[in-house]
Design a protein that fits this description.
Number of helices: 2
Shape: elongated
CATH topology of the largest domain: Immunoglobulin-like
Distance between the termini: 130 Å
Oligomer: single chain
Order of helices and strands: HHEEEEEEEEEEE
Strand order of the largest sheet: 2-9-8-4-6
Number of domains: 2
Strand content: 25-35%
Largest sheet: 5 strands, mixed
CATH superfamily of the largest domain: CalX-beta domain
Length: about 200
Amino acid sequence: MFRSLRVASRPETSWPGAILCGAALVGLLWAGCSSDDATQNPPPPGDNGVHFRTDRTTISEMTRTVRLVLDRDGDLADTTDVLLRLVEGTALDTVDFSAFPGGTRKVAMGVSDESDTAFVSAVPDSTVEADETFTATIESTTNGAKIGEPSTITITLIDLAADFSLPDVNTASPSHNLLISPRNKQQKLTAWYFGHAT
């Protein structure tokens, strides 16, 4: 016995409906593929201009040289000449450190340069003294570069030379029986032997 089957057909979708469905699908795909605006368009970097990497550093009479690192943030599309000046504190020019020739030093930062370096030298001596300080400051820039912070760095000069003396017991030495100190031998190669015998 055969039964008749009735197949219910869905009404055909009208053109306006198809267009709306297609638009909705495109919208879902776009939403799923698009990323956050903050990722596509990150905020511009902070513009602190030209500044020292830190506001303090140390230099010893033994190592003699310290690096002053300059960083530049923000717009790097142009060059800039940074003028640095050393300023006396308890440490004095030519006595404790070597000033820049003419009083200033120019650091030329090129296009896209994010950092550069200047060097400062200590002047060694044999005087026992406390730690001393002087400063370096950014005096000016060119091409509209902003002077950021820190614009001044404090440099501490540490006296590391050993402070003691011993009699020279070497009978062949010109200083036999005299008190000598490592401070009298700075920038020279010496050997010190300590021993005890009974």
